Amino acid sequence: MVTVVLAVTASAAPAPPFRPSLAAARFSPVAGPAVRCKTQACGLRCWIAAKVKFQKALKRHGWQVQRKLEVLGDESGGETANTSSDTSDSSINEKISMHLGVNHSEADPPMQKEDLVLFDHSDDHSESVPSLCIAVIGATGELARTKVFPALFALYYSGFLPRNVAIFGYSRKTLADEDLRSIIEANLTCRVDHHENCEEKLKEFLKRTYYIDAGHDNKDGMERLNSKMAHIEGTHAANRIFYLAVPQEALLDVALPLANSAQTKHGWNRIIIEKPFGFTSLSSQRDTESLLSRFEEKQIYRIDHLLGKDLIENLTVLRFSNLVFEPLWSRTYIRNVQVIFSEETATEIQGRYFGNYGIIRDIVHSHILQTIALFAMEPPVSLDGEDIRDEKVKVLRSIRKVDFEDVVLGQLKDTSGKVDRHTKSMTPTYFAAAMYIDNARWDGVPFLIKTGMGLMKNRAEIRIQFRHVPGNIYRERIGHDIDLDTNELVLRDLPEEAILLKVNNKVPGLGLQLDASELNLLYRDRYDVEVPGSYEHLLLDVLDGDNHLFMRSDELAAAWNVLAPVIHEIDQNRVAPELYEAGDKGPVNAYYLAAKHGVRWDDDW
């Protein structure tokens, strides 16, 4: 007995950008409607009925055959024949006729099955949702292996990627698809809070992952990438994301051929660029001009994974959705703001810190200045990304030129002998500075920043210290130095996520003695959920087209204008950073800097 299965799919018209949701975007196995008939039962009549039904579908839905024609053998042994995409109506007639006993000498021979998961557009949901291809350029590098691919799998596992998604790895190593899948699988884990179908999801994800050998010419490599994507996408609406996990020096070598040869014409294209964004203001400007000659601004997403933390997103939520804070957010009530970021990594310092990039280009230029911009900006017109970016760039342009006397540089003193060869570069691994924003809201308020590597602990927080109560009638009742007992709001990401509010209150008991206490919201106590990684957050923002946490070109230029004079001073005068021990608090001059501007650093390092 022979069974003929004819799988057809609907051709989707171009659709609006995909907006994922946990429910709508859940992965489901690829399957299409089938027309089945048994030759012994219906013979030629069944063949005619199948053809009429198929022609009605074509007329009604504009369907195109893109999948496969399966011929399932009977008990004596059968075979499966796959047709290529865009099979014509006449070839369908011939194949059906051949297996139903209708003589056609021109029948095509069976084709070999290809190891590709072709996108399925057979149901109503697929007709309205474009497919998505994600290419990770530099797929065998550490960033891609340990951060990007695990984040993509987490989104896929949680149902935030569209049903028709394919992942491509692109690099110059000679690998097969299975080799890349093995590399990726070694770094993949499932969510802690739900492990259901983990193994199944992992297999599905890896099955949708392919490798493209870039070879020695990115032009040819990008053409091969485009060809593979187009073959899987078919002729339906399709969107593409390109994650450029490559060194800054290789950015244009990859981006320009990509722009010319790998962009889809059936949907949107977005490229993600990793920090640092240029080595100098001039090199950054040249890179920007080259990128904007091939891409539109809205296509470019300059990613800094540190901006994907909930701490950053909570800045605007806390301020603009709470009446208790919004009126206080100005020079009238805020005495100073501290932005602190430190890492305790000391045994192996990443090469970029000693290899001339340093902490200024890597951390301060993007993460620190973007944090200040989001904190200090005026209320945007809406939550639209461009409206938020408009306000951020105003803050960056208002930052006063940094006086080099208000800068402290430090470099980790190596005692292991592993980085001695780098120390002659004098590239800082620690940076502290006092900055001022010259506008009506923040005039005279010092923004103290402190960031370093190899310090006592991992720490990321924003501390807002408020002014003293004018004519405080309880001054004599406060048991400590009044400078230590001012109101303070702390937004903390590390070592544990929390929001802390420091207030003065009466000590229980007889008499009237005041003390400073903390009202705290600890995320681990309040929310019984696992916090997604920052790469997951930002990749989902790219998919959504939400660009408010990504630097626009004018923001990039404004940030360079703030830091370029400092970097120039360091390079021209060969300023030697102050050495500090691993696991220490950092250079002692940072404390003198804070005192100069009337600020006390919190010593809880």
Describe this protein's structure.
There is one protein chain. This protein is an alpha/beta fold. It is built from 17 helices and 18 strands. The radius of gyration is 30 Å and the shape is globular.
Shape: globular
In helices, the fraction of residues equals 25-40%
Number of DSSP helices?
17
Query: Could you tell me the strand content as a percent range?
Result: 15-25%
Question: In which order are the strands of the major sheet placed?
Answer: 17-16-15-14-10-13-12-11-18
Rg: 30 Å
Structural class by helix and strand composition? alpha/beta
**Tally of strands:** 18
Mean pLDDT value: 80
Question: Main beta sheet: strand number and arrangement?
Answer: 9 strands, mixed
Low-confidence stretches: 1-48, 56-114
Alpha-carbon distance between the termini? Answer: 77 Å
